[in-house]
Design goal:
The structure holds three protein chains of three kinds.
Chain A lengths: L1 H23 L3 E6 L14 H8 L6 E3 L5 E3 L2 E8 L2 E6 L13 H10 L11 H4 L2 E7 L2 E6 L6 H4 L8 H6 L2 H5 L10 E7 L3 E6 L12 E6 L3 H9 L5 E2 L7 H6 L3 E16 L9 E2 L13 H9 L3 H8 L4 E3 L22 H10 L7 E7 L6 H15 L2 E7 L1 H10 L9 E7 L5 H8 L20 H12 L3 H17 L3 E14 L3 E2 L12 E2 L1
Parallel strand pairs in A: 1-10, 1-11, 15-16, 15-17
Antiparallel strand pairs in A: 2-3, 4-5, 5-7, 6-7, 8-9, 9-10, 11-18, 12-17, 12-18, 13-15, 14-18, 19-20
Helix pairs in contact in A: 10-12, 16-17
Chain B lengths: L1 H29 L3 H4 L6 H11 L5 H13 L13 H36 L4 H15 L2 H15 L12 E3 L2 E3 L4 H34 L2 H8 L4 H39 L4 H11 L2 H29 L11
Antiparallel strand pairs in B: 1-2
Helix pairs in contact in B: 1-12, 5-6, 5-8, 5-10, 5-12, 6-8, 7-8, 7-10, 8-10, 9-10, 10-11, 10-12, 11-12
Chain C lengths: L7 H8 L1 H4 L1 H13 L1 H18 L1 H4 L21 E2 L5 E2 L10 H37 L1 H16 L2 H12 L3 H28 L2 H8 L4 H9 L4 H24 L11 H9 L8 H28 L6
Antiparallel strand pairs in C: 1-2
Helix pairs in contact in C: 4-6, 4-14, 6-7, 6-9, 6-12, 6-13, 6-14, 7-9, 8-9, 9-12, 10-11, 12-13, 12-14, 13-14
Classes of the chains: A alpha+beta, B mainly alpha, C mainly alpha.
Chain lengths: 527, 325, 310
């Protein structure tokens, strides 16, 4: 009987919810996130949702603005003393949540903790590899590197600083249990319910501009339709990762506003550059042929036959821009002269014929299923386009876990596939990392070509990039990186398809600062 | 009785053993979790470092021996993704799932019983036939599809109930529950209804069959002859007699509710252990999958055992010796 | 995927005994056709199967031949005319595939998975049930223990964990569905076989010196078929729904073998955007298929074995 009464109560409550919610809303911001953090320990896992949340609680020395340009954060300024030494002046008067002062000792303790987090699935240690840190005074540190390292400030923008007390005594589990009071950010964690939400409260002693919200709850709504349903139903105030299919509907809704920003993520095709015969390419009758992808004309044909605008319009529904290199040209180190290859089927057919394949060949393309926005559909669309070029295409989409294992080291430790769809987000906001990982010659010892799943190799590009990585002067480095981009893209080391745009939707009256790095920061959301 | 319980536990250990071996080696064949964990910007040496940190650099049989050794000491391993003990992760999500399954169970009884009793009492009426047709539909509707429709209708078109997630929770006796706040009930209503749907059909059918059978029994005829009101006959005599089998069946069905919550939790973003399992499967988080199998099998064995023991207590004709069909 | 021992005798057994003994079959037929709802189910189901079988002949497009699909046709409303000139009565999906064609091809896969897994499970289950009943003793105890254990765990859970460990693919999902189904058959067949074994004709056959295999498969088995048929209908509906659920959760069939479940999952993202048809029609097709089977199953159960009614 009591249950019946409770149910009845629930039903009436449901009807009155609407008004109750808007009353609560005054100070609380509710955000629907597209991915869940694996932990709220800022140093446990170098994973986008983890970094995004922890950035608001544990600030970095160097910040990244919404376009991913570097800006002062806990470090007020920095400069090079010589090619191998960087000096950072730390901000004075900053206090941790527990009231203690932020000093160089905390930075040193954080540096010590990074490589020492047990069972870290993706450590931050590589960011500080080859760096030695020294304390000059309580608010000055110096970082020495073995070789000229222009990217030191960028690498310091990737991880947050925790107080010495937290760094030396607390485990990941302690962080998850909210035991660390050693952050300096505009918010502090007040609740962590894995699978459900993270709640933050305003840090009223924050040194910078205080955010508009007393309380922010980030809810994990990983399925896109679920997220859209939540904002339509008024369960949340802001959602990130608006799926292309729902753009039109959300834009036309008078109670919502939508903002977008070009992202640092490029979707591209990687091709087998290293095998004489490629495992998934044969003649149309199934007999083995020489790997056609090693011929530049074939690669050009494939790039020309790819109707990028159609993918952008029909599949991404406008949430993308045709791509010509590894990052949009507004980012640091990009080429300003490269342009997306225009769609030209006749030209592509001619090139293919010139290369000795007038009748095409047979190829199987692979891609992950559910890793990037509309990945399966993009692969299907590309397959349609290549079929029209005269190539017999088969496609296979594979769950991400399996796909990346096989694409990276499937066949005897080498990449398994011939032609794959992949995506790449440049967390650092400039091109050197992308070029090094995607088109740099694979070299285990140097750490190059980590994601070069086509084993593309271009000695000229390698040299320019190596030079760029040693050049501390920003203008010179940008020019060198642009040159490296042109060398690898004109040779079609990869075939870029499009850059994604990041889209947020919010209730009318709530303003979201769109960011290139896909982060949803409560500090960037205002009324 | 004791021998019976011990045998049951032995069987459960066997099931757990078989499932764990399948999962342990199967997941390993599907892919290497490192690629799901590592930040794509990292180079080969970082990949190696992660493998070593998680013990994935060793051959699979060595990992298995290591796992069995630890498991025998009560350590089921830590999640590759979250770094916390896998059992702890699952247990922390268990209250949400249990809450959902329980509410679904009560919904099934509250909605299914009246409909089933009516259909049993007046089987020839249009309404009764309609109820039975709907119950076939209830068996046939795929849960996930209904979930989507519920969200479309109640959350978006009508805007009555929140679409996703769990409401505010309160800690009672060390267990988090969202059932003590109105806000919590608004959140649980739709997912619980979604989960209850299959069981509502089941209850309708059980109740209808029970009522039809009971109506022919001597005690009911006797009660009628005594001139008791229909209301009293149904409310007291018939209901009392059909409740026991229904409750027993539902007790056993509770397990299937827990299992099906995987689907419902995924659609409604309900933070239970089913959603955790699905995420673990997608990310190849082997320790969590293995621990889930263990926890759930134990849970089932306990439920079945309790039902069997209760049944033997209620009905002395049932002997807990050999389960001969 | 193991090769299942479907002996010719078993298949013959499924067909022969029914017409041989005129009385039960005609009684069954009469009983079944008496119920209008069941007949409606049968008609609906026959239409669905016919559509699926004839798909290549009656669809305007082979949805998996990339040459015939055009991206420019994506998300057309039901009734629009596609670039190739045909009318898409149910609209097109996100890459321009005609949904009517897609659904019929998807039905083929869904039905194939449902039937094949049911057939294999029934064969294994019957074999196990017969062996248990005929052999008795330790063999019976062990086999039935396994059956009980299997039945104590919910199908969706076992299937989910199996596909998690096996990966995607038609063969894998059929394997998982067989594993979750066979025990139902084994339990029922054993129960019936135990009854049959005590009957005189078995004794007679044994005294004639017929081999055990012959007695079991030619004489006992045909008499256990009625309940098997009941379970086949119920389980096929279950298997189809279960496959759709797993595919929806992303652990069932891959995109390259799109069953109805995969189609619904693909359309899921368009649910709220107004392109409702992309997941609505596959959902409707799935629903009609399952309902039609259940309508028949309900009646078959009543006719063949009234005691089985819950």
């Amino acid at each position: 009987m009591t249950s019946i009464r409770l149910l009845a109560l629930a039903a009436t409550a449901a009807l009155t919810m609407g008004s109750a919610i808007s009353a609560l809303q005054a100070q609380e911001l509710r955000i629907g996130l597209s991915a869940e953090p694996s932990s709220i320990d800022p140093h446990y896992h170098n994973l986008s949702p983890n970094n995004m949340l922890s950035r608001q609680v544990f600030e970095t020395l160097v910040g990244q603005n919404e376009k991913q340009a570097l800006e002062p954060s806990l470090a007020e300024s920095w400069k090079t003393l010589d090619d191998n030494t960087w000096e950072f002046k730390l901000r004075r008067g900053v206090k941790f949540f527990d009231g203690s002062d932020f000093t160089a000792d905390d930075v040193l303790a954080t540096f010590k903790r990074l490589p020492a987090v047990p069972r870290s699935p993706s450590s931050f240690a590589p960011f500080i590899a080859g760096q030695t840190i020294e304390k000059v005074d309580s608010h000055t540190i110096r970082i020495k590197t073995t070789a000229p390292a222009p990217l030191v400030p960028t690498s310091l923008s990737t991880f947050g600083i925790v107080s010495k007390a937290c760094a030396e005594t607390l485990s990941t589990e302690d962080f998850n249990a909210l035991k660390c009071q050693g952050g300096t950010g505009p918010f502090k964690y007040s609740e962590f319910r894995p699978g459900d939400r993270v709640v933050m409260e305003r840090n009223n002693a924050y040194w910078g501009k205080k955010p508009d919200w007393e309380k922010v709850s980030f809810r994990f709504l990983t399925a896109a339709p679920t997220r859209v349903a939540a904002i339509l139903a008024g369960d949340v105030d802001v959602i990130e990762g608006v799926p292309p299919s729902d753009m039109a509907r959300l834009k036309s809704n008078a109670n919502l506003s939508v903002v977008e920003e070009l992202s640092n993520r490029v979707i591209y095709f990687h091709l087998d550059h290293f095998r004489e015969t490629s495992p998934f390419i044969t003649a149309k009758d199934g007999s083995p042929i020489k790997n056609p992808l090693r011929d530049l004309r074939v690669r050009q044909a494939l790039s020309m036959a790819l109707n990028r605008q159609a993918i952008v319009d029909r599949i991404m529904e406008g949430q993308a821009v045709p791509a010509e290199q590894v990052l949009p040209s507004s980012f640091f180190g990009t080429s300003q002269t490269l342009k997306p290859t225009p769609f030209d089927l006749a030209g592509a057919r001619k090139l293919l014929a010139d290369a000795g394949f007038p009748n095409g060949f047979k190829m199987k393309m692979h891609g992950p299923n559910g890793r990037y926005t509309n990945d399966t559909k993009i692969l299907e669309a590309a397959a349609q386009m290549y079929t029209r070029l005269g190539i017999d295409i088969e496609i296979e989409t594979i769950p991400p876990a399996n796909f990346f294992t096989r694409a990276s080291q499937g066949a005897n430790g080498d990449p398994e596939f011939s032609f794959i769809l992949v995506g790449w987000g440049a967390g650092t906001g400039e091109t050197s990392g992308s070029l090094q990982a995607l088109v740099g010659t694979f070299d285990r010892t140097r750490g190059w070509g980590a994601a070069n799943r086509g084993r593309y190799s271009n000695k000229a590009m390698d040299e320019v990039l190596t030079e760029a990585l040693r050049t501390v002067d920003n203008t010179k480095r940008a020019a060198l990186l642009a040159r490296a981009s042109e060398l690898s893209m004109n040779d079609l080391g990869i075939i870029p398809s499009h850059y994604q745009t990041n889209v947020w939707a919010s209730r009318k009256g709530i303003k979201v600062t769109a960011r290139a790095d896909e982060y949803t920061l409560a500090t960037g959301i205002t009324r | 009785m004791l021998a019976f319980i011990i045998r049951r536990i032995g069987q459960a250990m066997l099931v757990i053993g078989v499932m764990v071996v399948i999962v342990f080696f199967g997941v390993n064949v599907i892919g290497d979790p490192v690629w799901m964990l590592i930040s794509p910007e990292m180079d080969q040496s970082a990949v190696e470092a992660t493998k070593i940190a998680l013990g994935l650099d060793k051959p699979i049989w060595e990992q298995f021996i290591y796992f069995v050794g630890n498991a025998l000491q009560g350590d089921m391993g830590r999640s590759f993704v979250h770094g916390e003990p896998a059992i702890k992760l699952i247990l922390s999500r268990m209250p949400a799932t249990m809450e959902l399954a329980l509410v679904a169970l009560f919904m099934a009884i509250l909605i299914g019983m009246p409909l089933g009793v009516y259909a049993g009492l007046k089987p020839e009426t249009r309404l009764a036939k309609g109820i039975m047709a709907v119950s076939i539909l209830g068996f046939s509707l795929p849960t996930f599809w209904v979930g989507l429709m519920l969200i479309m209708f109640f959350s978006i078109m009508l805007g009555w109930l929140p679409a996703t997630g769990r409401g505010d929770t309160v800690r009672v006796l060390g267990i988090e529950t969202s059932l003590l706040s109105l806000n919590g009930w608004t959140y649980i209503a739709l997912p619980a209804l979604n989960l209850a749907l299959l069981k509502i059909s089941l209850v309708i059918r059980l109740a209808r069959a029970g009522v039809r059978e009971a109506a022919l029994m001597d005690y009911v005829k006797f009660a009628r002859a005594k001139g008791l009101s229909q209301r009293r006959i149904v409310g007291v005599h018939i209901l009392k007699n059909i409740m026991i089998p229904i409750v027993t069946v539902l007790g056993l069905e509770f397990g299937s509710l827990v299992a099906f919550s995987v689907v419902t939790e995924t659609i409604f973003a309900w933070p239970g252990m089913g959603k955790l399992l699905l995420e673990a499967i997608q990310r190849l988080d082997r320790p969590v999958i293995v621990a889930y199998v263990m926890v759930v099998v134990v849970l089932f064995v306990v439920i079945n055992l309790v039902v069997d023991v209760l049944y033997s207590v209620l009905d002395p004709r049932v002997r807990l010796t050999e389960a001969k069909a | 995927m193991t090769d299942t021992p479907i002996s010719p005798a078993m298949l013959a057994g499924a067909a022969t005994p029914v017409p041989k003994e005129e009385t039960p079959f005609t009684r069954f037929r009469k009983g079944f056709f008496e119920d209008k709802v069941a007949v409606a189910g049968l008609i609906l189901f026959s239409i669905i199967v016919a559509l699926a079988l004839l798909a290549p002949l009656i669809t305007p497009q082979n949805p998996y031949d990339l040459r015939s699909v055009d991206l420019m046709d994506s998300r057309l409303k039901p009734g629009s005319v596609a670039g190739e000139g045909f009318t898409t009565w149910l609209g097109t999906d996100g890459v321009g595939r005609d949904l009517y064609s897609g659904i019929l091809y998807g039905l083929r896969i869904s039905l194939m998975v449902g039937f094949l897994s049911g057939l294999i499970a029934a064969s294994i289950g019957m074999a196990v049930g017969l062996i248990a009943a005929y052999a008795g003793g330790r063999v019976e105890t062990i086999l039935m223990r396994i059956v009980d254990l299997q039945l104590s765990l919910p199908a969706v859970l076992i299937a989910l964990i199996l596909v998690a460990a096996l990966g995607k693919g038609v063969d894998k999902i059929i394997f998982a569905l067989v594993v979750v189904q066979w025990a139902y058959y084994a339990r029922t067949v054993r129960g019936n076989a135990l009854v049959e074994r005590r009957k005189e004709y078995v004794e007679a056959a044994q005294s004639l010196g017929l081999s055990n295999a012959r007695v079991v498969f030619r004489h006992i088995m045909p008499n256990c078929l009625a309940p098997v048929i009941v379970i086949v209908t119920v389980q096929t509906a279950h298997a189809i729904a279960l496959e759709a659920t797993l595919s929806f959760l992303g652990v069932g069939l891959p995109q390259t073998e799109p069953s109805l479940g995969v189609l619904i999952a693909n359309g899921f993202q368009y649910m709220l955007s107004g392109s409702y048809w992309i997941s609505f029609f596959p959902g409707l097709a799935l629903l009609l298929t399952i309902v039609s089977i259940n309508l028949m199953g309900d009646r078959i159960r009543d006719v063949l074995n009234p005691r089985l009614e819950k």
